[in-house]
TrEMBL record:
Residue ranges constituting the MOSC domain according to the UniProt record: 30-155
Membrane-spanning residues: none
Protein name per UniProt: MOSC domain-containing protein
Top-level taxonomy: Bacteria, Pseudomonadati, Pseudomonadota, Alphaproteobacteria, Rhodobacterales
One annotated GO molecular function: catalytic activity
Comp. bias intervals (Basic and acidic residues): 167-188
Region annotated Disordered, chain positions: 157-188
Amino acid sequence: MERMADLIARQAQDGRLDWIGLRPARLAVPVAVEAVEVTAAGLSGDHARPGPRAVTLLQAEHLVVIGAFLGRGPVAPGVLRRNLVVAGLNLSALRGRRLAVGSAVLRVTGPCAPCSRMEAALGPGGYSALRGHGGWCAEVLLPGRIARGDAVRPLSEEGGDVVAQDDFQRVEAEDHDQRRQVEPPHRR
């Protein structure tokens, strides 16, 4: 019988980078680009800061799911304000793992919870539609260049792929604080 860690680590295929979006300022509309340099601080031209949330990722397959929850077709990636849309990989299974994207290497650090702006961006029920489908945060381990169509490959566990537990706890605490700001007091 195989160990659970081995089963979780195995992916059926590499993924593909379908969309790249830069947010030039905090509330600015994301701009789609074909390619970008990844620096230690995140994507060049994006307003993000270095650390465990430098780059945000969303699973392409979830665009259809979110749209279905809203009673319409797939949602446009820019509306959700994530940096990268990846197809063909279950990002949920990659928490704590390193990903090679183009010549860059990222580490998936934790979930990227939806913010209250999603209700305005998507309409009534937008925030709820994104719960559990808000994407993932990542830190930059190796700067490089990425482009639409690049393979997204999970790297082996060798070399310390797993993020330290205190990093997970810090990201989860930030997500919890963010949710508390949005949820009504009676739901807390």
